[in-house]
Write a structure and sequence with these properties.
The protein is of the alpha/beta class. It contains 10 helices and 7 strands. A 7-stranded mixed beta sheet has the order 3-2-1-4-6-5-7, sandwiched between helices. The protein is elongated, with a radius of gyration of 27 Å. The chain starts with a strand and ends in a 14-residue tail after the last helix.
Length: 316
């Protein structure tokens, strides 16, 4: 099978027939063999009924129904697990992503050899309250991930080689950082294509401003896990050692200062009367705790069943 189209959705009953008809026209015009996987993320409208109707009429239509709303990342994860096409395309169900982009995305994967191609909605039909935070978010994501050529990490329209979606785990709200997840898994040929962005035709957006706050927190988590997930001692042990040494040196300086004052007959105070002593002692305690946290994290990582799960590309 050439293409699997994975479409997560929540309360999009009006747009689904039109979206599938559009996808069908594009696929048949280009002679692609394909499947369309609708992932109903706990919709409360008739979205699932529409999917069932489409599936009864078209063998290419497949569906997954969640009992409740879990979010876009779990929907993509389940869609990726079910996908069988050599190239996997993701798009939103609100008709803001154009299926006309599919042939070129497919060509970039199969001919130009990209592992992942992300859409870039250069001209957006969104209010400033959404576009400005999006620009700041993408600038931060580029800096942290090191993927400098992407301008729109969160664009729903993306294309992947099948191996990519089978090698990454999309969880929580990490769908924003699939390119970063792919890079961490060893798929580094990541490209971008300017795509057409359309104004929403039906319904209202399902995302609020809280996604930007959550997005930054997820980015920090992903960066930390990719750097120190299997070697926590490298960060906690280092910080703990530095803090302990710094506190120990401070205690020694305080003690030497008192001994010097006693030797020279100068006025002095008890070490325990100095606030610097307690600051130094607290630093040593925190350093010890950080070191132990790193040690415990290392023990857990060493015993994790997935510690030796490596992404092997070829084997002779």
């Amino acid at each position: 099978m050439d293409i699997s189209v994975v479409i997560p959705l929540y309360n999009e009953e009006e747009s689904l027939p039109e979206l599938y008809a559009w996808i069908q026209r594009v696929m048949e015009a280009n002679g692609f063999s394909y499947e369309v996987i609708f992932v109903n993320d706990g919709s409360t409208d008739r979205s699932w009924n529409v999917i069932e109707e489409l599936s009864s009429k078209h063998e290419q239509v497949k569906g997954i129904k969640f009992r409740r709303n879990y979010g876009k990342s779990p929907a993509l994860f389940c869609g990726f697990k079910k996908a069988e096409g050599d190239v996997v395309i993701t798009m939103d169900a609100d008709l803001q992503d154009s299926p006309d982009e599919i042939p070129e995305l497919y060509r970039m994967i199969t001919v130009e050899g990209y592992d992942l191609v992300s859409g870039y909605k250069k001209k957006r039909y969104d209010p400033l309250s959404k576009t400005i935070p999006t620009k700041l978010f993408n600038a931060t994501a580029r800096a942290v991930s090191g993927i400098k050529n992407l301008h729109d990490f969160n664009c729903g329209l993306k294309a992947y080689r099948k191996e990519v979606v089978k090698s990454i785990e999309v969880y929580g709200e990490m769908h924003r950082y699939i390119p970063y997840l792919a890079k961490t898994a060893g798929f580094c040929k990541i490209g971008e294509k300017v795509v057409h962005h359309q104004a929403r035709k039906y319904g209202t957006t399902k995302f609020g401003l809280n996604r930007f706050v959550n997005g930054y927190l997820d980015l920090i988590s992903l960066w930390f896990l990719s750097k120190f997930g299997i070697k926590p001692m490298h960060i906690f042990g280092l910080l703990g050692s530095v803090m302990f040494i710094f506190g120990f040196i401070a205690v020694v300086i305080i003690g030497v200062h008192k001994l010097y004052a006693m030797y020279c007959g100068l006025p002095y105070i008890l070490i325990t009367d100095s606030p610097y002593f307690y600051l130094a002692l607290t630093t040593m305690i925190l350093g010890t705790q950080l070191f132990l946290a790193g040690f415990l994290g290392e023990m857990i990582a060493r015993n994790a069943p997935e510690r030796n799960n490596y992404n092997i590309e070829k084997e002779l």
